[in-house]
Amino acid sequence: MAEHTPKPEELSKVDYHPPKKGWMDPHVEFRKGTFCYSALAKNIEYLGMPNPREWQPFDADWKLPPNWKQIILDGMKERLEKYRSFRLFMDICVRCGACADKCHFYVGSGDPKNMPVLRAELIRSIYRRYFTPAGRMFGPLAGGRELTEEVIKEWFYYFYQCTECRRCSVFCPYGIDQAEITIIGRELLNLIGCNINWVIEPAANCFRTGNHLGIQPHGFKDSIDFAVDELEDITGIRVEAPIMKKGAEVLFIMPSADYFASPHYYTLLGYLMLFHEIGLDYTMSAFAGEGGNFGLFTSHEMMKRLNAKIYEEAKRLKVKWILGGECGHMWRVAHQYMNTLNGPPDFLEAPVSPITGTRFENAKSTKMVHIMEFTADLIHNGKLKLDKSRNDHWKVTHHDPCNVARGMGLLEEPRYVINGVCNHFHDMPENTIREQTFCCGSGAGLGTDENMEMRMRGGLPRGNAVKFVKEKHGVNLLTTICAIDKATLPAVVDYWVGGVEVGGIHELVGNALVMKGEKERTADLRGTPFAGKEVKAHA
Amino acid sequence: MNALLSLIVVLVLGALAYVGGSVEGLRTLFGVIIPYAAILTFLVGVAYRVVRWALSPVPFRITTTCGQQKSLPWIKAGYLESPSTTLGVSLRMALEVLLFRSLFRNTKAELRSGPQLVYGENKYLWLAALAFHWSFLIIFLRHLRFFMQPVPAFVNLLSGVDGFFQIGAPVLYITDIVILVALAYLLWRRFRDPQVRYISLFTDYFALFLLIGLAGSGVLMRYFFRPDIVAIKELALGLVTFTPAVPVQVGGLFFVHLFLLSLLIAYFPFSKLMHFAGVFLSPTRNLANNNRAKRHVNPWDYPVKVHTYAEWEEEFHDKIKAAGLPMEKE
Amino acid sequence: MRDKGLIFTGLVLFLVLITFPVWYDLAAGTTSKGPDPKLPTAEKDCVAPLEYMRTSHMDLLLSWRDQVVRQDRLTYKAFDGKTYDMRLTGTCLKCHTNKEEFCDRCHTYVGVAPYCWECHIDPALAQRSRG
Q1: In angstroms, what separates the C-alpha of A244 from chain B's closest C-alpha?
Q2: What is the reported pLDDT for C44?
Q3: SS (H, E, C) chain B
């Protein structure tokens, strides 16, 4: 926890009264703990993006290019012509305010510019002033605002205070999606070199090495080998974990955190056990070693550049179809963008589970199946031997990742799998799950430590819902199928709840999975003794 | 401030029409020229705005899924909330347009000490919005009795149903009460709720006051200061049949009503009121969630600079080799 | 993806619908000419001035009904000092003898269906059915 972050008691005293000054005043104060640091010049340079330089958001001079205003206005014009969503969402908002208290950052901060409607007005006011007759003629009276450097700073502050979670879009009577506006807003900021390092560095790493963390091929192999060794210790079975094996049936794509971060790592163990047990002919890849895509948080172009590796690698390895692991925004991209960006993948076949024979009709064009669909199908067809009691030490609740819930609609599969592998599952209140799920507060590239106060504010609704089920049902494990969640929710639940762990669903699958020829297991993948085996474990 | 200013503007405009209706030389202006100009502005303006939207493509299929995707056959898919077929999308859109489905979800989040975040039902906005829009539609259709001769049966039927209670003469229309109450609520909400007041622009109040002025002047005419409606229909028919004339019997309040209407429809294409057409085009609501089953094509797609496998293998050649991973070039 | 065909079809449909009265009146050969109710030739004075009767006769009739039915008051003192029986059939229709050519013309013209005739009987109609 960053040193500046106030205590929960302080932070939860949120003042919802709007300030005296009207919102058209663009001035923002870059207060420590509420913003992310600028992108390093080397990363911007590596990606060939504009205006690499040394600067920080709290500097008075942002060293913008001399013609920055023209760049922004031209950029807006271009995007108004390219995206119906953008033009429409600029035009039709009636400011009814239904979205206001749907945003986790607004709930946690009380800052009116965090209401989705006002976050959108920040750019809409510029649109009206420069692109509509009423705004050109009547200015502020028609809701128009001059584009100044202060406005750019304000955009930066608030567009990097939106996690593109789309919760507002569910409640908007016209489906106006703030994520779409934030994506375009960030694209515009990128045109003049205003980005954050927590987004740009992973993007640069991913472009170069194939994963966000910058792990090189040998490092990738080491990680997987380490996991295989550890699994042998736990189960007595040495699983195969093929890397870049040509001619495998399935290419498995996961977020890089799964093989390099905790608690993601236990999910990786779960995958490896599952694939071994069902005898899946698959391969991983160090080149396409990242399902996550920080291009989504940068620009549509960067998203395409980073995403291209997946189909390229599938083609090179001559696999039949692609299986995707537990990740949130990776699945927004895989489900809603990939086939359009880098398809059509004619060289692949419509996915069929080699174990159950199920044809995944819903993935027949993109040819990528979500592991929750895959595993749910296995369980439904009785292909797995599962000992649910091995998860009896967990009282589980599930956090639907925003992108998977509202950008895909994968809601039942995870619950089906959880219920298939454990005995104690309790959903959080209905206003906080499924399509109404609350963001972790750190998505879309905001999960950095210098932004801790804002992350905790944004995490308040989620934290509160976890606290509710902890107190009501004794929940001690929050599962999620998103790598960013797994990285950032531990901080959120420690801060707002305490005593709840975070984990992936395939970790639970790995706990429950009874493997052929396994040695007697007394502890789960984390080394926590199974319920009823505590004494034995100690002895 | 914004509210006061827009109230003053609407009052001044109304007064202008009231005076204009009584000045001989201005009657043609307010009774013929302005209405024609307003209708023309509306038709051309709305078409222009819709065409502008249509010309911007939808490069990606970005449905907001509000329910279970269609995946495995034994998992019940959200047919309306996450539709995977064109019919499902049409029904989702119909629910949105006719019943304001998304607004119906509205909740109120309240942070209590503890902290404890609670969510309450909050359907008033939905109810008022629905009441306003449906009343407006019915009133609009009822008004066709002034523009069509003979009066079509459905218009008479609608008036009959709307005046079902037969209170007074002319009978009281239920929608007249409903629209005023709904508009009053929507205005009151903009004042009362500090967040909504903070985001409200001059134009938000202007549209509301215009509508209140329009409905109010109509109600005053029907129930209190009755004009000669036969003469009004002659004027209306004159406009519709392109033989415009302003009968001597019309004046005063009617000119206020007609002028506010003209302003409203002329203002439509320049304002947020275009949401009536825009909602149909909203990409998060009018696209099927069948992304992985059916490819969506981006018409302006262009090649980008990527990091190819060959470049990658070349850069990390020694390390890949040392790790014993398979390679294209040894 | 543009769906231009669908959008333009929708737009044209909207424009046709919103201008529907124009096409309807064109097809019906409608002019802006008024309804031209048939006025009595024998009598010159009414119970109230013409201006008032044009816009507010329904007020008067409703007040007559209330006075007769609920307050048992039967005569009306008009603006010019004359007195009348407060009766629709006996007083109004005595001069305006033809409901179809007087009342109905305007009412039909502006789409009004007063409920007078749910109780009252048009004497001309009664006569015809007797005859």
Answers
A1: 6
A2: 83
A3: CHHHHHHHHHHHHHHHHHHHCCCHHHHHHHHHHHHHHHHHHHHHHHHHHHHHHHHCCCCCCCCCCCCCCCCCCCCCCCCCCCCCCHHHHHHHHHHHHHHCHHHHCCEEEEEECCCEEEEEECCHHHHHHHHHHHHHHHHHHHCHHHHCCCCCHHHHHHHHHHCCCCCCCCCCCHHHHHHHHHHHHHHHHHHHCHHHHHHCCHHHHHHHHHHHHHHHHHHHHHHCCCCCHHHHHHHHHHHHCCCCCCCCCCCCHHHHHHHHHHHHHHHHHHCHHHHHHHHHHCCCCCCCCCCCCCCCCCCCCCCCCCCCHHHHHHHCHHHHHHCCCCCCCC
Alpha helix (H) residue ranges in A317-448: 329-336, 338-342, 371-380, 402-406, 412-421
Q: Residue B160: inside a domain, yes or no? A: yes
Interface predicted TM-score (ipTM)? 0.95
pTM comes to 0.94
| Residue C4 and residue C55 in one domain | no
**Domain region containing B42:** 2-322
Domain identity same for C21 and C38: no
Give the DSSP letter of residue A142. Answer: G
Q: Name the minimum distance, in Å, from the CA of B91 to any CA of chain C.
A: 16
- Whether residues C7 and C26 share a domain: the answer is yes
- How many structural domains compose chain C? 2
Please report, rounded to a whole number, the percentage of residues in chain A having pLDDT higher than 90. Answer: 97
pLDDT score at A2 = 53
Residue B282 lies in a domain: yes
* A 341-370: CB under 8 A from B: 341, 343-344, 358, 360-368
Mean pLDDT of C11-20: 96
Number of domains in chain B: 1
The verdict on C40 and C22 lying in the same domain is: no
Which residues form the domain of C110? 34-130
Asked if C59 and B150 come within 8 Å (Cβ–Cβ), the reply is no
* CB-CB under 8 Å, B234 with C34: yes
